[in-house]
Protein backbone atom coordinates (compact mmCIF):
# COMPACT_ATOMS: atom_id res chain seq x y z
CA UNK A 1 0.00 0.00 0.00
CA UNK A 2 1.19 3.54 -0.73
CA UNK A 3 2.23 6.19 1.73
CA UNK A 4 -0.23 8.49 3.51
CA UNK A 5 0.84 11.38 1.23
CA UNK A 6 0.27 9.28 -1.90
CA UNK A 7 -3.19 8.29 -0.64
CA UNK A 8 -4.03 11.94 0.09
CA UNK A 9 -2.81 13.07 -3.34
CA UNK A 10 -4.90 10.36 -5.03
CA UNK A 11 -7.96 11.45 -3.04
CA UNK A 12 -7.42 15.11 -4.01
CA UNK A 13 -7.06 14.11 -7.68
CA UNK A 14 -10.35 12.22 -7.45
CA UNK A 15 -12.01 15.21 -5.82
CA UNK A 16 -10.74 17.42 -8.66
CA UNK A 17 -12.08 14.94 -11.21
CA UNK A 18 -15.54 15.08 -9.63
CA UNK A 19 -15.96 18.48 -7.99
CA UNK A 20 -13.24 20.65 -9.44
CA UNK A 21 -12.29 22.64 -12.47
CA UNK A 22 -9.15 23.67 -14.30
CA UNK A 23 -9.17 27.06 -15.98
CA UNK A 24 -6.94 29.20 -18.15
CA UNK A 25 -8.32 32.70 -18.62
CA UNK A 26 -7.35 36.05 -20.04
CA UNK A 27 -7.95 38.93 -17.65
CA UNK A 28 -7.49 42.66 -18.20
CA UNK A 29 -4.94 44.19 -15.87
CA UNK A 30 -6.12 47.02 -13.65
CA UNK A 31 -2.86 48.97 -13.81
CA UNK A 32 -2.31 49.18 -17.57
CA UNK A 33 -5.34 47.51 -19.19
CA UNK A 34 -3.17 44.97 -21.01
CA UNK A 35 -4.36 41.38 -20.90
CA UNK A 36 -2.72 38.77 -18.71
CA UNK A 37 -3.21 35.05 -18.34
CA UNK A 38 -4.53 33.49 -15.17
CA UNK A 39 -4.40 29.77 -14.37
CA UNK A 40 -6.70 28.37 -11.69
CA UNK A 41 -7.44 25.08 -10.00
CA UNK A 42 -10.77 25.25 -8.20
CA UNK A 43 -12.52 22.75 -5.93
CA UNK A 44 -16.24 23.16 -5.12
CA UNK A 45 -18.38 21.82 -2.30
CA UNK A 46 -21.73 22.55 -0.71
CA UNK A 47 -21.09 24.94 2.18
CA UNK A 48 -22.66 22.49 4.66
CA UNK A 49 -19.94 19.95 3.74
CA UNK A 50 -16.96 22.22 3.15
CA UNK A 51 -14.58 20.59 5.66
CA UNK A 52 -12.98 18.63 2.83
CA UNK A 53 -11.91 21.89 1.16
CA UNK A 54 -10.09 22.99 4.32
CA UNK A 55 -8.41 19.58 4.44
CA UNK A 56 -7.29 19.88 0.78
CA UNK A 57 -5.97 23.39 1.44
CA UNK A 58 -4.05 22.08 4.44
CA UNK A 59 -2.56 19.13 2.51
CA UNK A 60 -1.54 21.30 -0.49
CA UNK A 61 -0.48 24.21 1.70
CA UNK A 62 -1.94 26.81 -0.64
CA UNK A 63 -5.14 28.41 -1.86
CA UNK A 64 -7.95 30.51 -0.52
CA UNK A 65 -11.44 29.47 0.47
CA UNK A 66 -14.53 31.57 -0.09
CA UNK A 67 -18.20 30.99 0.57
CA UNK A 68 -20.42 31.94 -2.34
CA UNK A 69 -23.95 33.37 -2.14
CA UNK A 70 -25.40 30.25 -3.79
CA UNK A 71 -24.60 27.92 -0.88
CA UNK A 72 -21.33 26.68 -2.37
CA UNK A 73 -17.83 27.03 -1.01
CA UNK A 74 -14.78 27.00 -3.24
CA UNK A 75 -11.06 26.53 -2.82
CA UNK A 76 -9.11 28.45 -5.48
CA UNK A 77 -5.46 28.06 -6.28
CA UNK A 78 -3.70 30.49 -8.63
CA UNK A 79 -0.13 31.10 -9.69
CA UNK A 80 1.82 29.43 -12.46
CA UNK A 81 4.47 27.80 -10.24
CA UNK A 82 1.91 26.58 -7.73
CA UNK A 83 -0.38 25.19 -10.43
CA UNK A 84 2.56 23.45 -12.10
CA UNK A 85 3.68 21.85 -8.82
CA UNK A 86 0.17 20.66 -7.93
CA UNK A 87 -0.65 19.33 -11.41
CA UNK A 88 2.61 17.36 -11.58
CA UNK A 89 1.69 15.80 -8.24
CA UNK A 90 -1.96 15.05 -9.15
CA UNK A 91 -1.65 14.12 -12.84
CA UNK A 92 -0.82 10.40 -12.34
CA UNK A 93 -4.10 10.00 -10.41
CA UNK A 94 -6.42 12.18 -12.50
CA UNK A 95 -8.76 10.12 -14.66
CA UNK A 96 -11.55 12.27 -16.11
CA UNK A 97 -9.82 15.64 -16.46
CA UNK A 98 -6.50 14.37 -17.79
CA UNK A 99 -6.77 16.39 -21.04
CA UNK A 100 -7.47 19.63 -19.15
CA UNK A 101 -4.72 18.94 -16.58
CA UNK A 102 -2.08 18.07 -19.20
CA UNK A 103 -3.01 21.11 -21.27
CA UNK A 104 -2.98 23.48 -18.31
CA UNK A 105 0.41 22.08 -17.31
CA UNK A 106 1.78 22.91 -20.79
CA UNK A 107 0.30 26.40 -20.54
CA UNK A 108 1.77 27.25 -17.13
CA UNK A 109 5.16 25.91 -18.22
CA UNK A 110 5.05 28.24 -21.21
CA UNK A 111 3.79 31.18 -19.14
CA UNK A 112 6.78 30.95 -16.81
CA UNK A 113 9.19 31.87 -19.59
CA UNK A 114 10.73 35.32 -19.38
CA UNK A 115 9.74 36.53 -22.84
CA UNK A 116 6.80 35.28 -24.89
CA UNK A 117 6.58 35.72 -28.64
CA UNK A 118 3.51 35.85 -30.89
CA UNK A 119 3.61 32.12 -31.55
CA UNK A 120 3.57 31.45 -27.78
CA UNK A 121 0.40 33.52 -27.40
CA UNK A 122 -1.22 31.58 -30.24
CA UNK A 123 -0.32 28.31 -28.49
CA UNK A 124 -1.84 29.64 -25.27
CA UNK A 125 -5.08 30.47 -27.09
CA UNK A 126 -5.15 26.92 -28.46
CA UNK A 127 -4.57 25.60 -24.93
CA UNK A 128 -7.46 27.75 -23.66
CA UNK A 129 -9.75 26.39 -26.35
CA UNK A 130 -8.76 22.80 -25.56
CA UNK A 131 -9.51 23.28 -21.87
CA UNK A 132 -12.80 25.07 -22.65
CA UNK A 133 -13.92 22.32 -25.02
CA UNK A 134 -13.35 19.69 -22.31
CA UNK A 135 -15.06 21.66 -19.53
CA UNK A 136 -18.77 21.63 -18.92
CA UNK A 137 -20.04 25.20 -18.84
CA UNK A 138 -23.32 26.89 -19.49
CA UNK A 139 -21.61 30.22 -20.11
CA UNK A 140 -20.88 31.40 -23.62
CA UNK A 141 -17.32 30.59 -24.57
CA UNK A 142 -15.10 32.89 -26.59
CA UNK A 143 -14.02 31.88 -30.08
CA UNK A 144 -10.42 31.67 -31.22
CA UNK A 145 -10.85 34.93 -33.13
CA UNK A 146 -12.22 36.71 -30.03
CA UNK A 147 -9.33 35.46 -27.89
CA UNK A 148 -6.73 36.50 -30.47
CA UNK A 149 -8.40 39.90 -30.71
CA UNK A 150 -8.15 40.40 -26.92
CA UNK A 151 -4.42 39.72 -27.23
CA UNK A 152 -4.07 42.10 -30.18
CA UNK A 153 -3.11 39.31 -32.58
CA UNK A 154 -5.69 39.86 -35.31
CA UNK A 155 -5.11 41.89 -38.46
Considering the chains and any ligands shown, give keywords for the structure:
155 residues; alpha+beta; Endonuclease I-creI; four-stranded antiparallel β-sheet; 21% strand
Describe the protein in words:
This protein is of the alpha+beta class and 155 residues long. The protein has a single domain (4-150), classed as Endonuclease I-creI, CATH 3.10.28. Helix content is 48%, strand content 21%. The chain is built from six helices and four strands, in the order αββαββαααα. α4 packs antiparallel against α5 (118-134). It starts with a helix and ends in a 5-residue tail after the last helix.
Write the layout of secondary structure elements.
Blueprint: H1 4-19, E1 20-28, E2 35-46, H2 51-60, E3 64-67, E4 72-78, H3 80-90, H4 98-111, H5 118-134, H6 144-150
Helix pairs in contact: 3-4, 4-5
Q: Per DSSP, what share of the residues sits in E-state strands of 2 or more residues?
A: 15-25%
Total count of domains: 1
Largest sheet: 4 strands, antiparallel
* Parts with pLDDT < 50 across at least 5 consecutive residues: none
Radius of gyration using CA atoms only: 16 Å
- How far from one another are the termini? 57 Å
CATH topology: Endonuclease I-creI
Counting DSSP E segments of at least 2 residues, the number of strands comes to 4
Alpha-beta content class:
alpha+beta
Mean pLDDT, all residues: 91
- Give me the strand/helix succession: HEEHEEHHHH
Neighbour order of strands in the largest sheet: 1-2-4-3
In DSSP terms, counting alpha (H) and pi (I) runs of 4 or more, how many helices? 6
The second-level CATH architecture is Roll
Helix content: 40-55%
The CATH class label is Alpha Beta
* Apparent shape: globular
Fourth-tier CATH superfamily name:
Homing endonucleases
